[in-house]
Design goal:
60 residues; alpha+beta; 30% helix; elongated
């Protein structure tokens, strides 16, 4: 089992089961928060939890 769904996880035998983080959404949220902070000078701490995804493969 591994974290982050890299292409090599499917190439090895048995293919690895992975916990995949929503990297695109993480980047989008980081960009939105950065722009908001730059425009509003907002210093409030914000917490955001993005759900990971379990991708079951042969190693599960």
């Amino acid at each position: 089992m591994s974290f982050d769904d890299i292409a090599e996880a499917t190439l090895i035998q048995p293919s690895l089961t992975v916990v995949s983080s929503p990297v695109r959404e993480i980047g989008q949220q980081a960009g939105k928060r950065l722009l908001s902070k730059m425009n509003n000078n907002n210093t409030d701490i914000q917490r955001l939890i993005l759900a990971p995804k379990l991708i079951c493969r042969d190693s599960a």
